[in-house]
Design goal:
289 residues; alpha+beta; 4-stranded mixed beta sheet; 10 helices; 66% helix; elongated
């Protein structure tokens, strides 16, 4: 529940900050009442944060998760991990990802990067300690499938579109509240306190709805990544890996990496969950056999 609230708060906070900045510095007035100007303004700010996060995702992940990149393997585990990811990447037809390990007792893994040929696949120490080599291989296949499917770029584009609509609808709501407070009278420019409060409220409410849509889409991508992991490492091994995750505890990945981790779904479906429940994922894999 905590990670869901943080995920929602992060998206809302970004849009609220943009709203305050544009209102304080008069950028709202600069675009006037033109619908075309509003769409351009909304798209500019809607996609800016999304694409900046996408291009910086790899370095941000390395720093935030303290990932130790395997540049020159120093032991058998590192050699096996790197060679397995690279073999799967070659089979999938993508560039060789960077491979790394991050310290966490919770079994998890994630993939990130701005394109298929410049990606990162990282696993937790907890995953290496609790899963069999075959199950770890399946998890790696799941993450390589995320890269092959272009999920990072797809989610970035989707978030940019959603942010754009959030900004547009929030401004419309702000204008309606401002007009209502003036009693429908013209004048005042529509950029008073009523407009600012309405704009902020719209960012929070519509931002929450956008997060629900993004989470639903993320859950559909998880099914595809599971299928990819099954293809690369074997269906039973993929099922075994998901079974092993049931007792692994809550995911501790940052909100910007939640959608690309192997873990994240509990036993119950929620609107804000980035992953379907593990039992549902397992049942779907068995049904597709």
């Amino acid at each position: 529940m905590i990670r869901v609230l943080l995920f929602l708060a992060t998206n809302a906070a970004v849009l609220v900050v943009f709203s305050i900045i544009t209102s304080v510095f008069g950028l709202d007035r600069a675009i006037g009442a033109s619908n075309v100007s509003l769409v351009i303004y909304a798209a500019l700010f809607g996609f800016a944060g999304s694409f900046i996060s996408l291009f910086l995702s790899k370095q941000m992940a390395i720093r935030s998760m303290r990932v130790q990149l395997i540049e020159t393997p120093t032991n058998d585990t590192e050699r096996w991990l790197q060679s397995t990811v690279h073999a799967q990447a070659k089979e999938a037809g993508i560039g060789l990802p960077d491979v790394g390990i991050f310290d966490s007792p919770t079994p998890n893994a994630f993939a990130t990067g701005w394109n298929k040929n410049d990606s990162l696949v990282a696993v937790s120490t907890g995953l290496l300690q609790t899963m069999s080599p075959e199950e770890v291989e399946a998890v790696l296949g799941h993450e390589v499938a995320h890269v092959y499917n272009g999920d990072m770029v797809t989610m970035g584009l989707l978030q940019g579109v959603l942010n754009t609509f959030v900004i547009i609808f929030s401004r419309i709501l702000g204008g309606m509240i401002s007009s209502a407070l003036r009693g429908g009278r013209q004048g005042g420019g529509g950029y008073g306190m009523g407009f600012m409060l309405g704009n902020i409220l719209g960012n929070v409410v519509f931002g929450a709805l956008a997060s629900i849509i993004a989470a639903w889409f993320s859950r559909q991508r998880e099914y595809r990544a599971d299928a990819g992991g099954a293809k690369l490492a074997g269906r039973e091994h993929m099922i075994g890996a998901l079974e092993a995750l049931k007792g692994g505890g809550e995911s501790r990945l940052p909100s910007n990496l939640q959608a690309f981790g192997i873990s994240g779904g509990g036993r119950l479906a929620t609107l804000m969950a980035t992953h379907p429940p593990l039992d549902v994922r397992i049942a779907r894999l068995r049904a597709e056999a």
